[in-house]
Amino acid sequence: MSKYTEDDLKVELENKEYEYGFYTELESETFPIGLNEDIVRAISKKKNEPEWMTDWRLQAFAAWKEMEEPEWANVNYTKPDFQAIAYYSAPKKSDPNKTLDDVDAELLEMYKKLGISLDEQKKMNNIAMDIVVDSVSVATTFKKTLGEKGIIFCPISEAIQEHPELVKKYLGTIVPQKDNFYAALNSAVFSDGSFCYIPKGVRCPMELSTYFRINQGGTGQFERTLVIADEGSYVSYLEGCTAPSRDENQLHAAVVELIALDDAEIKYSTVQNWYPGNKEGKGGVFNFVTKRGLCEKNAKISWTQVETGSAVTWKYPSCVLKGDNSIGEFYSIAVTNNFQQADTGTKMIHLGKNTRSTIISKGISAGKSQNSYRGLVQISKNADNARNFSQCDSLLMGNNCGAHTFPYIESKNTSAKIEHEATTSKIGEDQVFYCNQRGIPTEKAIALIVNGFSKEVLNKLPMEFAVEAQKLLEISLEGSVG
Amino acid sequence: MLSIKNLHASVEDKEILKGINLEIKAGEVHAIMGPNGAGKSTLSSIIAGNETYEVTAGEILLENEDISELAPEERAHKGVFLSFQYPVEIPGVSVTNFMKTAINESRKARGQEDMPANEMLKLIREKSELLEIDRKFLSRSLNEGFSGGEKKRNEIFQMAMLEPKLAILDETDSGLDIDALRIVANGVNKLKNEKNAVLVITHYQRLLDYIIPDFVHVLMDGKIVKSGDASLALELEEKGYDWIKAEIQ
């Protein structure tokens, strides 16, 4: 019969190439492979950093050498050889002082392929953008408009030069150098990332956005993001990521720190689409990321993430609810296909009184992938009247994938209210037939069902991102059904 | 409109339909009645293209074109509509969004552009009024938490939106109270014209008080064993099916 079956779709999806898998020929400067104190010093020197920063890195490196990779996550992979990676790679013609007009033509071409026209972004979307390729930040738009409000949005390397007092005060306070193996590594070798400061009482008038791309082969990407929302301020921050298709595994170990002072609010949204490896499970990005935010009094932090890429994901964007009445939220869609593995979730640490947290996690597994939710809700002794609501839903496609849920709840205060709901479902043949009967082909029907399943989280994304995320879900699952 | 010739079908090697012949012309309403397990729902599923069933012989012609090899969505694009006995839930997808997708997929298949948003809204308003559907209902997730009556009314609403050539109503009366039944039947009657056709599959004669059939067929053990006009339904209501069984033996 001519009917397009789920199996056909599966085959098509498996064969569908990673759309962002191109590599751009850019002249780049790459450090020799391997990691030692000299490399750490060299990175710091390359960035012309003050001594305190070099020392900070060296402390981190010393700690890292003594640490071991965590093995508790529900993922299996060959550990990266940390001495076989180059820790610094930069497009050669980069000069931090130039304007957008001077940006390398090939680089601009690459942005075009990624669907980012900086000009258009500028005019249409009201999104200020920082782009990090391999290790350095290459373009920050909208700086002037933001400057008028006192908002600082720049590469972190620049912030270290221009605003050392802010960086010194906050860097490593939420994710300390020794926090974990990958955070320590990042602290030692990070070469760029974004820095953002919103002054007291200022509502950032546009979405701030960083676009990360790994371009060079054999390199790791270690970016560091620091967002500080001063008292009573508000900011919405977006982050997107892609990488070329390569046979080898590439390491991405980022650290993001958010600080929401009294009455401030930070919305942090991520669309992660690193190369997931091919359909046999070869290649792909190892995405080992530490993200954490601190809420002071009445502050609020919302993490929203759409995770469709990477071969292995290890990531738990968390909130430390230190101030009374503070709020933490985590909204996540994690899609795994083929041989992808994801172990992701959040930690909500309730320290203050009347603190509230919400966790909505939607896991979608297809192919032979494994998708785990891991979350911790911790209510401390003094956190009177703390509340948490968690909902973890899993959607399975076919019979060869897995969905796992590891919720941890620790409460030391009897006034706490904690709710946890979980569901697991499969896309039913009857659902697909129902859609078919209304004229909707199988592939579109699955996209519709998946989007419906993810709706609560998609709704949390800023408009322009939600559309992109929806498309990404469709692409990631095209042909993955069955 | 629809012409079924010597249709045989089975599921897991068990033969369910054993040679169905049926002619439905444009403008006609046909009813298929029969006891449980006679193959009524199987027949409707097969016309719609459900692949759970294997067609082992015979053909299904829609406007003289054999559709028995077509995918269900292709049949839908050609104007086949099935009102399901048990409509499925699709969480997170609103009735409006679902209809928008369905209509635009059909248009795409016909080489047309997406329906403009204002036109779509107008159509939705018109058809929801026809079926006395509250607008709030349209933003709810498809069939999720709907009562039996709401589900069936929603099926007929979709039929109204898609304007099919052949509408098959599979046990549309089950789960309906008398008011809902009247609304649903009214909707069907208003949608009926000389260019389309309706096939009503039902267990009871109740629905046929409202949707008056031109022909009534009795399906038993995979075959149409008796055909007649609307009065046959009344006779069945009164006497049950046993007398027919006796008659054909």
From TrEMBL, chain A:
GO terms for biological process: iron-sulfur cluster assembly. Residues 212-453 form the SUF system FeS cluster assembly SufBD core domain. Residues 47-204 form the SUF system FeS cluster assembly SufBD N-terminal domain. InterPro entries: Fe-S_cluster_assembly_SufBD, SUF_FeS_clus_asmbl_SufB, SUF_FeS_clus_asmbl_SufBD_core, SUF_FeS_clus_asmbl_SufBD_sf, SufBD_N. Coiled coil: none annotated. Pfam families: SUFBD_core (PF01458), SufBD_N (PF19295). Belongs to the iron-sulfur cluster assembly SufBD family. NCBIfam families: PRK11814.1, sufB. This is Iron-regulated ABC transporter membrane component SufB.
UniProtKB/TrEMBL annotation, chain B:
SMART domains: AAA. It comes from the Bacteria. Keywords: ATP-binding, Nucleotide-binding. The keyword ATP-binding applies. One of its GO terms (molecular function) is ATP binding. Residues 2-246 form the ABC transporter domain. The keyword ATP-binding applies. Belongs to the ABC transporter superfamily. Ycf16 family. PANTHER family: ABC TRANSPORTER I FAMILY MEMBER 6, CHLOROPLASTIC. This is Fe-S cluster assembly ATP-binding protein.
